[in-house]
Structure formats: structure tokens, C-alpha cells
Amino acid sequence: MRAAWMRCSPARIVAGMTTITLITGGSRGLGRASALALADAGTDVVLTYVSNGDAAASVVAEIEARGRRAVALPLDTTAPETFPAFADALRAALSATWGRPDLDALFMNAGYAGDTTFGSIERADIDRLVAVHFTGVVLLTQQLAGLLADGGRILNVSTGLTRNPANPAYSVYAAVKTAVETWSLYLARQLGARRIAVNTIAPGATATDFAGGGIRDSEAYRGMLLPTVAMGRIGEPEDIGAAVAAILDPRMAWVTGQRIEASGGQRL
Ligand SMILES: NC(=O)c1ccc[n+]([C@@H]2O[C@H](COP(=O)([O-])OP(=O)(O)OC[C@H]3O[C@@H](n4cnc5c(N)ncnc54)[C@H](OP(=O)(O)O)[C@@H]3O)[C@@H](O)[C@H]2O)c1
Q1: Residues lining ligand 1, CB < 6 A?
Q2: What does the pLDDT read at residue 16?
Q3: Is the Cβ–Cβ distance between 77 and 86 less than 8 Å?
Q4: Cα dist from 25 to 22, 81, 137, whole Å
Q5: Which residues carry out catalysis?
Q6: Which of 75, 208, 209 to mutate to test the pocket of ligand 1 (most atoms within 8 A of CB)?
Q7: Which is nearest to 202 in space by CA: 168, 169, 173?
Q8: Backbone phi, then psi, for 22, in 5-degree steps?
Q9: What pLDDT digit, counting tens, does each position of 154-180 carry?
Q10: What is the pLDDT of residues 112-164, one digit of tens each?
Q11: What's the gap in Å between 210 CA and the centre of ligand 1?
């Protein structure tokens, strides 16, 4: 008799076939680390970039060096009018590289920080954050839902700041990430009939280019953050990559509609 996790896993994974994950913003930071962790776990990757084609090509090369296949495609997630053409390009890449009409997981990661100081918040500041962290996520998911295999996965990215209003500069950013958490709950219910699990990962402060690279490069900022992390160090992209690969593991196929914080216990 098969183990419970095998009975509820995507048929493709049970059959030992290649799985493919699409990662938006896979050229740097958390997306890149997740791409490499997934490759180490035996998954092939389609990654997107908006401006750093060379960085994306390097990630593809790193994945191939691990014996997996990868493709990089350009995508601006704030430009929904381009999503139909992106879906066509994705379909063509899946067919040419894997001989498949679909993929197994979407990791909606692309994004950036945006400071907003109460008293001087402009409408354009809000619109920019909503465009990348919410509108793009919703409309791209809708566009690609037909390319996602039944039994597949969707993982969206939130932030620890939705639960801890630690830094007033991130009020709008965190509020928009809260919208993604709620969106993920509704999507989990909507796609449950297709056995598609939808979850949210909420990283704590992690050393990437995010927010001008301050979490990685500023000793003063790191010194301020350090006492807030129960595990006593600042998060590295590899910490989040490992968590993403674990959440997308076939043994997690029964977990859906959850917000999973990966922060080393920040601000517990
Ligand atoms: N680092 C943290 O502390 C932290 C904590 C919680 C949540 N997060 C969230 O995690 C996600 C990734 O952050 P990160 O730290 O990895 O940031 P990062 O190092 O700055 O990387 C951002 C990635 O997103 C892509 N991107 C940016 N704008 C885009 C757009 N309009 N369309 C498509 N792709 C776009 C970039 O592509 P290019 O390379 O082509 O520019 C890059 O691959 C974001 O959603 C962020 O809000 C980060």
C-alpha cells in the first residue's frame, strides 16, 4: 500500500517524472535561491526576469550544472497586457524543452520594497506596490491557471511584516502583502477541486538586493535586526530557498491555504 503522501501527490511526482516550477523573479535573491534549491531537489525550472537577463542566464547555467533543465523568460509582472504573450512563450518553452503542455508549480515571487512615510504617501507609491505585489499576482495566476497541471501547486510570497508592524516605512508594502495572503486563501478554496494546493510563504528580513541591499550590506541595520531574530542571525536567501523547496515537496501536497513564516523566529 502506498504511503498517504504518495496517494495525495500529483500523479506525475508519484510516477517519478520530471516536475517543472515557474518562478517569477528568479534572476536574483529569493527567487534565485529557490530555483537552485528546487533544482537540488530534482525539479526543473522556468524562471523569469525583468531587467537582468545576464543574471537569469547565470541561474540557468547553475541549474544545468546540477543536472536539471531550466529556461529563462522575460516578464514584467506589472504589465498584465503582456501576460497572454508570456503564456504563449511559456507554452512554447514547455513544449520545446520538456515536450509537455503544462507545468507543476507556480512560485509568485517577483517584487521589490517600497518605502512609504505616513504624511507624504503619494497615490503613485501605492499604485506601484499594488501593481507588483497584488494585481500582477492575481492576473498572472489567472492567465496561467490553465497551464498548471491538476494536482499542482501555487506558492505566493508575503512578508513577516504583515503580522509585525516593525518598520513604519513598509506600511503600504505590508498591507498589500496582506492582500496576497487573503487572495491565496480564496484561491486555495477555488482550486481545491483540481487538487491544487495554494500557500503563502512569509519570509523575515533576508539578505538580498531587497530594499537597496540594506539587510545584507548595512552593518547598522543588521545590528538593529539581529536581536529580533530568535535564532540569532540574519536570514540568507538559501534559508528561504530551502523552505520553498520543502513547501513544494510532494509530501506537502495536503497542506493548502496556509501562511508559513520563514524567519528564524523574527519578533516572536
Ligand atoms: N528579502 C527580504 O527581506 C524579503 C522579506 C519578505 C518578503 N520578500 C519578498 O520576496 C520577493 C523577492 O524579494 P528578494 O529579496 O529576492 O528581492 P531582489 O533580490 O530584489 O529580487 C527581486 C526579483 O524580482 C524581479 N522583479 C522585480 N520587479 C519585477 C517586475 N516588475 N516584474 C518581474 N520581475 C520583477 C527581479 O528581476 P530582475 O533581476 O530582472 O530585476 C528579481 O529577480 C519579493 O516579493 C519581496 O517582497 C523579501
Answers
A1: 24-25, 27-31, 49-52, 55, 75-78, 109-112, 132, 157, 159, 203, 205-206, 208-210, 215
A2: 59
A3: no
A4: 10, 18, 12
A5: 173
A6: 208
A7: 173
A8: -95, 130
A9: 999 999 999 999 999 999 999 999 999
A10: 998 999 999 999 999 999 999 999 999 999 999 999 999 999 999 999 999 99
A11: 7
Q: What is the mean pLDDT of residues 222-250?
A: 97
User: Which of 34, 36, 82, 109 most suits a substitution to test ligand 1, by most atoms within 8 Å of the C-beta?
Assistant: 109
Q: The C-alpha cell of 160 is what?
A: 513577516
Ligand 1 atom at minimal distance to the Cα of residue 132: 31
